[in-house]
Design brief:
Butyryl-CoA Dehydrogenase, subunit A, domain 2; Butyryl-Coa Dehydrogenase, subunit A, domain 1; globular; three-stranded mixed β-sheet; binds flavin-adenine dinucleotide; 433 residues
């Protein structure tokens, strides 16, 4: 084992190894990390765990984003909320930082971050207005991952570099008026006519619908088989004939990030735009579910970032507030509330990071990702409620942003599978023979 260690630091008093870096590749590092964590009592500090698992350059991205949030995003958070849009120059800065290609491999122009490094970026990015993360979220996750996981080489070479550069925003279109949680009920259909597929149907609540150039879209290609081999994933470009986008929805939160209805009316899609090529016809449901596994970890990270921010705001607030002449921080009710928030956040971070590491070793994490999404997103709502209690009337004021977080974190329990759907996935897995 020591031969694989490049640098080590030992605590002189306890004689314990406090930190080290591996020479080996990330996969091996993760495996060794698990061996060590399970067989040694010397590694209890989560910061050490991070250091072991993530190369410095990937941690540097998290730090850059932290700075970007503090210097560029947080100062305009209220403006974005009021105006319902992110200024173009900020989107340009996001492009320059590489935020549209966090998870896209380097060979396609992305940053090629590990899952763990990527979710740590989201934890920072969601400590401000959630719309900023949403603007880049679909390109890194549900919009592009189908192409990355199952696309042909041609498709990867055509689309991924543009998505990674932020030139083309990618979106994901599964939900329909009659098919939300029950995605197997989609009606949008595609019929092969010569060298084109003809798509007809409506998708709704499509994040970034009006700014995306490319849509991973799931449609029915075999009415008999439906979800059991009758759904196909397509890459749709916004300029294809018969494709249109409706006006943005008026929503409760994420005011700076639009969702739209999109309509396919005899939309002409080249035959080769089936994700993975013609041999993948009928495999669209599998592609969609694989994409959502990763999306659920992302949602966990967003919920965690918002929760941490709310806790930090509460700590800062009660240190400087007085109640009947006594500092609020002296009130046991406030102290206990902070303690419960911090404890939940610690638990959430452990499960999220552990699942991300497992995914980075190549393990299927469907079960764990559902537990992460369920726990982290439900926690974020509890924490936002507690923050509102701690701030009291001030929390109800727009300028404190507590009410914005309360509205925004509610969404995390709805999209990419509601809490009930996560419970169904988890229990189905537990009860499987
Ligand atoms: C802001 C926003 C952005 C979105 N972005 C996208 C996107 O980019 N692409 C996309 O395709 N979709 C997107 N969606 C859609 C989202 O994924 C769906 O809203 C979600 O899957 C839930 O579906 P539904 O709203 O139709 O709720 P329903 O399925 O109608 O569910 C209503 C309620 O019933 C519960 N329920 C449903 N079925 C069961 C069951 N079997 N057992 C127990 N309880 C059940 C649900 O948990 C929920 O509480 C977005 C939605 C929102 C609000």
């Amino acid at each position: 084992m020591p031969a694989l260690i490049q640098q080590s630091r030992w605590d002189r008093l306890s004689g314990k190894l406090v930190s080290f870096k591996f020479v080996s590749d990330l996969g091996l590092r993760s495996i060794l990390f698990h061996l060590l964590i399970n067989h040694s009592t010397n590694f209890s500090n989560q910061l050490i765990a991070m250091e072991i698992s993530i190369p410095d350059e990937q941690l540097a991205m998290r730090d850059k984003v932290k700075q970007f949030v503090a210097e560029e995003l947080e100062p305009i958070s209220l403006k974005v909320e009021a105006e319902g849009r992110i200024p173009d120059q900020i989107v340009d800065k996001m492009r320059q930082l590489g935020l549209f290609g966090l998870s896209i491999p380097r060979e396609y122009g992305g940053l090629g971050l590990s899952t763990l490094a990527e979710i740590m970026v989201y934890e920072e990015l969601t400590k401000t207005n959630a719309s900023f993360r949403s603007r880049i979220g679909t390109s890194n996750s549900i919009g592009s991952m189908g192409i990355l996981f199952d696309g042909t080489d041609d498709q990867k070479n055509t689309y991924l570099p543009r998505i990674a550069a932020g030139e083309w925003t990618a979106a994901f279109a599964l939900t329909e008026p009659d098919a939300g949680s029950d995605a197997a009920n989609i009606k949008c259909n595609a019929v092969l006519e010569g060298d084109h597929w003809v798509l007809n149907g409506t998708k709704q609540f499509i994040t970034n619908g009006d700014c995306a150039s490319v849509f991973t879209t799931i449609a029915v290609t075999d009415e008999q088989k439906r979800a059991r081999g009758g759904f196909t994933a397509f890459i749709i470009e916004k300029d294809f004939a018969g494709f249109s986008v409706s006006l943005p929805d008026s929503k409760m939160g994420l005011k700076g990030s639009n969702t739209n209805e999109i309509v396919f009316k005899n939309c002409m899609v080249p035959r080769e735009n089936v994700i993975g090529g013609m041999e993948m016809v009928g495999m669209g449901f599998k592609t969609a579910m694989r994409v959502l596994d990763k999306g659920r970890l992302t949602m966990g990270a967003c919920a965690l970032g918002a929760s941490q921010k709310l806790l930090d705001m509460c700590v800062a607030h009660i240190k400087h507030q007085f109640n009947s002449g006594k500092p609020k921080a002296d009130l046991q009710v406030a102290q206990f509330s902070l303690a419960d928030m911090a404890t939940e956040i610690y638990a959430a971070r452990q499960m999220l990071h552990d699942t991300a590491r497992l995914r980075d070793t190549g393990k299927n994490v469907t079960h764990e990702a559902s537990m992460v999404k369920l726990f982290c997103t439900e926690m974020a709502s509890r924490i936002a409620e507690r923050a509102m209690d701690i701030f009291g009337d001030e929390g109800y004021l727009t300028q404190t942003q507590i009410e914005m977080f309360l509205r925004d974190v509610r969404l995390y329990r709805i999209f990419e599978g509601t809490s009930e759907i996560q419970r169904m996935v988890i229990s189905r897995n537990l009860l499987r023979d």
